[in-house]
Amino acid sequence: METFDALTHYLKRVALNPWPVVAIELLLIGLVVYWAIDFLEGTRGERLFRGVIFILVAGFIILKLVVDRFAFERLQFLYNGFLIFVLIIAVAGFQPEIRRALIRIGQPSFLASSSQQLAKTIQEIVSTVEQLSATKTGAIIVLERQVALGEFVAGGVSINADVTAELLKTIFYPGTPLHDMAVIIRGDKVVAARVQLPLAEADSSYSGELGSRHRAAMGITAGSDAVCLVVSEETGTVSSARQGRLKRNLTRSDITRELTTVMAEQVAPTFAGVLNWFRKTPGKKTQESK
Question: 282 lies in a domain?
Answer without folding.
Answer: no
